[in-house]
Fold these 2 entries.
Entry 1:
Amino acid sequence: MDGNYKEIIKRHYDTLASKMNVDKVVMHLHNLNYLTDDMKGRLDAERSRITRSRKLLEMITSKGRISFTSFRIALIKAGDLLLAKELLEDSKQLSGKQDQLERSKPLVIDLDKSEEKSEFGSDNTSENGSSQRSMINIGNNCFVVAKTYKGELNVHIRQFEETKAGRLFPTKKGVVFPLPRWALFMNLEPDISDCLKSYSELESEQCWHLGGGVYAKINSEYPTVNIRHYWKPDDAEQPVPTKRGVMLNKFRLDNLRDAMEKLKEFVPEIEDAVPCMYGDDHMNQEGMLRCPECSPFDYEKYC
């Protein structure tokens, strides 16, 4: 978690530990896929409510900024509205300062001149044959990255973290788009942006399938787009979300729209990329059912 967000938790630590409905907050954090089964089990094993509260706050402060957002959502769902409001007021002041700082940073990192290229191998080419075309910052060290791996060019939206020395390195929090999937996302992005602007008017969750196991979702409880990889367990009827994904607020989504245009300068192949659903082999239902992009969890049944 960013140091400033840790300070917000510490500032309200005593009040949160003594007043929050920790059992409901833990339940909702578990439902949001922030807490794993193991983490929830460790919290449930604590006998006293105050000890559970303190251990949960330790977990929150040890994670990234996304944990702070998830924590506030869980407080709201648990009915701790006043606590959530206090955190929100502090975070608004912090977000305003951070957004101003982000706007002052260059959007595109020039990999030919930047020292960041050393994090990905000499001359942006690593030993496993991966090479990087560009890094475009869309806010708070979340980057749109075009990268070739084993001969396949993909676009990533990925969260990076900084070392104490100020060097950037990629985390596992992110989404991968092959070029046809990225082309579909570009087509859907205006609808997603319009929906986010009016999120408070939504009567139900809005969902877009971006290809493969990747979905973008918006609900009326919080102004964010959750883009995430899903998978389907053998005993499940519906696919479930994984930890691989990113959450974009309005500021990041606006920057993402600009990044989509700038990325074309570094990856001209994007102009020729076509979503698979527009191919000749998808002109009938059978073609779509056999496609791992269009029917990622059932296509093997029809092959």
Entry 2:
Amino acid sequence: MSFELTYHGHSTWHVTVDDTTLLIDPFFDNAHSELTADDVDTPDYLLLTHGHADHIGHAAQFTEATLVATPEIVSYAGDELGFADAIGMNLGGTVECDDAFVTMVRADHTNGINTDHEYEGGMPAGFVISDTEPTQVADTESTTFYHAGDTALMSEMKDVIGPSLEPDAAAVPIGDHFTMGPMQAAIAVDWLDVEHAFPMHYDTFPPIEVDTDDWEREVQATESEVTTHILDGEESVVLD
């Protein structure tokens, strides 16, 4: 199995698990990407963590993908964006997406969709993507990536996501103001007990401009053995 992560700035990630491609929260109007949505191939699956405009972003340009989101987001995307193929799921559920398994987990945040019609976004979420189905039996051969979505620090990272879903790598928001800042994001990385950590959701708007060095210093202060990666847009990492 091959497992590759590509960062497109803000919270936008392209994940390839063997022959399956997944795009998370497509929003290319950010400081770390030189691409437009037109430059990006349609993935097999499009994953949306919640309904805010900087996460739904350019979803309408990927309607040939299979959408994976809460039933509320799926309803909105079918009515307003033109998605015909979708998997509506909810917190705690796992769905098989060809070569990948996608588990939806909690995120502590708000949710909403700005349209002329009334739509509920459901609960905001994060996604845990693995090349094997999650079980209680530890699997040292599996590879797992956690996209935390927009979230505050929450004990579920320490009590559930880390020990039960066993992510090898995590992307955590560090921009503060709307999500965790550098200090709480560093604690999250420590609690998750991952080998690799990536910052996201920063520098896109003035309120979330931060120095990634601050986050790395906070991670070091936890004495975690994690390797931090500061990726610019379109940079990739292969997980072993």
